C-alpha cells in the first residue's frame, strides 16, 4: 500500500479512536470465535504482525494516532488490549519512539520483528526524507516491546529506480539462513511501474542484505490489479508457500466492497522460483457477513498450530465503511497436500 495508505485510509484516524481500560471502545457485539472472520482487536491497527514471547502474544502495527509503531498484547489470541506508555498516562506505547536519521516522520508502516541471538530486529517501512519515497529500515532492541533504535543514515533496502520499497518480512529457513522479502513500490504514482515481490539474503544478525534481490512474483493476474504486496514466506514439511496480498487496499465510499484480497504462491525454495496458485484469491471480501479488504497477512505458529493474522476494514452493520480504520483478524491456518486452508479462529 503506497502513499498515505498505511498511515490510514481516512487520514490517520487512529487519533480519533478512543480506548477504555486498554481496549478500543465499540458499539459492535463482541467477536464470536469460530463462527466467522470477526475482528479480534477493534481499533485502527493496520498491517498487523504477531510475535509469541514468554507466554504472551505481542502484536505490532502501522503508525496511528501519533505512534510510530503501535502494539497490542494478548494471552489467548482472541482478547487483545492496547499497550500504553508506562511513563506518559493516556499515551499509547510506541515500540520505536525515535526514528532513524534518514526517516521523515508520519509514514511508518508494516512492522515485523525477528528474534536473533543478539536480541530483536524490527523491520519497518518509512518515508525517506531525501527522496520522498517509502523505503525499508531495521532497528534493534533487547526487549521485543522496544524501544527499537537505529542510527542508520540510509535505509536497509530502497529500490529508488522502482518507486521505493515497502512491506519487509523476514524469514528463517530450516538451514538457519535468513531472508528478507519485500515489494517495490511501483504503484506509487511517481513511479508508475509494475509491482514485484523480491527476496534477498540477510546477514546472520539480520541487519544487512547480501547478494542481489531476486524477483519472485509480479502483478500479472486479473484479480491482482496493479498491486502485489505484503509477502510472507512459510515453510512446512519441505514445501515453501509465499502468501501475499493484491489489488487496491482501500474501501472507497463508491465501492460496495473492497477489492483487496489474499493469495499465495508455491515456491521451490526461499529464492524461488514461485508460481501463483490457480485457486487465488484464497480470502477475499464478502458482504455476508461483512469482511472488506482482508489482507496484509503474516503467519505465526503456536504450539505446533499455524495462524494467519491480517487486517480488514471496519464496517457498519450494513457493510459500509465505518471510517474507523482497519481491524486486526486472526485465522486458523491448516494444510492440505501442501496447499494452505483458512478457517475462522476458534477460542483457545
UniProtKB/TrEMBL annotation:
The UniProt record lists the keyword DNA damage: no
GO molecular function, one term: hydrolase activity, hydrolyzing O-glycosyl compounds
Keywords: Glycosidase, Hydrolase
Domain of life: Bacteria
Annotated SUPFAM superfamilies: Arabinanase/levansucrase/invertase
Record-annotated active site: 47, 229
One Pfam family matching this protein: Glyco_hydro_43
Site-annotated residues for Important for catalytic activity, responsible for pKa modulation of the active site Glu and correct orientation of both the proton donor and substrate: 167
InterPro entries in alphabetical order: Glyco_hydro_43 (IPR006710), Glyco_hydro_beta-prop_sf (IPR023296), Glycosyl_Hydrlase_43 (IPR051795)
Gene Ontology biological-process annotations: carbohydrate metabolic process
Family assignment from sequence similarity: Belongs to the glycosyl hydrolase 43 family.
Name of the protein described by the UniProt record: Family 43 glycosylhydrolase
Organism: Pyxidicoccus fallax
Lineage: Bacteria, Pseudomonadati, Myxococcota, Myxococcia, Myxococcales
Amino acid at each position: 500500500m503506497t502513499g498515505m495508505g498505511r498511515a490510514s485510509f481516512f487520514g490517520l484516524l487512529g487519533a480519533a479512536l478512543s480506548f477504555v481500560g486498554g481496549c478500543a471502545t465499540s458499539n459492535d457485539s463482541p467477536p464470536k470465535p469460530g463462527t466467522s472472520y470477526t475482528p479480534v482487536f477493534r481499533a485502527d491497527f493496520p498491517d498487523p504482525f504477531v510475535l509469541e514471547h514468554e507466554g504472551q502474544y505481542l502484536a505490532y502495527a502501522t503508525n496511528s494516532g501519533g505512534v510510530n509503531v503501535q502494539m497490542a498484547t494478548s494471552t489467548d489470541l482472541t482478547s487483545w488490549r492496547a499497550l500504553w506508555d508506562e511513563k506518559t498516562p493516556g499515551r499509547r506505547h510506541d515500540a520505536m519512539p525515535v526514528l532513524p536519521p534518514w526517516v521523515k516522520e508520519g509514514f511508518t508502516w508494516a512492522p515485523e520483528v525477528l528474534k536473533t541471538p543478539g536480541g530483536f530486529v524490527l523491520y519497518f517501512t518509512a518515508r525517506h526524507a531525501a527522496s520522498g519515497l517509502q523505503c525499508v529500515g531495521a532497528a534493534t532492541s533487547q526487549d521485543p516491546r522496544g524501544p527499537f533504535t537505529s542510527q542508520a543514515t540510509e535505509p536497509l533496502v530502497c529500490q529508488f529506480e522502482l518507486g521505493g520499497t515497502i512491506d519487509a518480512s523476514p524469514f528463517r529457513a530450516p538451514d538457519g539462513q535468513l531472508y528478507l522479502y519485500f515489494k517495490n513500490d511501483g504503484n506509487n504514482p511517481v513511479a508508475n511501474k509494475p509491482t514485484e515481490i523480491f527476496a534477498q539474503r540477510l546477514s546472520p544478525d539480520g541487519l544487512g542484505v547480501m547478494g542481489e534481490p531476486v524477483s519472485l512474483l509480479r502483478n500479472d493476474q486479473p484479480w491482482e490489479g496493479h498491486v502485489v504486496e505484503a509477502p510472507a514466506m512459510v515453510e512446512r514439511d519441505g514445501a515453501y508457500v509465499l502468501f501475499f496480498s493484491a489489488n487496491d487496499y482501500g474501501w472507497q465510499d463508491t465501492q460496495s466492497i473492497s477489492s483487496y484480497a489474499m493469495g499465495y504462491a508455491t515456491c521451490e525454495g526461499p529464492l524461488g522460483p514461485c508460481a501463483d496458485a490457480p485457486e487465488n484469491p484464497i480470502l477475499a471480501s464478502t458482504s455476508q457477513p461483512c469482511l472488506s479488504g482482508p489482507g496484509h497477512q503474516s503467519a505465526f505458529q503456536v504450539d505446533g498450530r499455524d495462524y494467519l493474522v491480517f487486517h480488514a476494514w471496519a464496517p457498519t452493520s450494513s457493510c459500509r465503511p465505518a471510517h474507523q480504520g482497519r481491524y486486526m483478524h486472526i485465522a486458523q491456518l491448516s494444510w492440505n497436500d501442501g496447499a494452505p486452508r483458512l478457517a475462522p479462529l476458534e477460542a483457545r
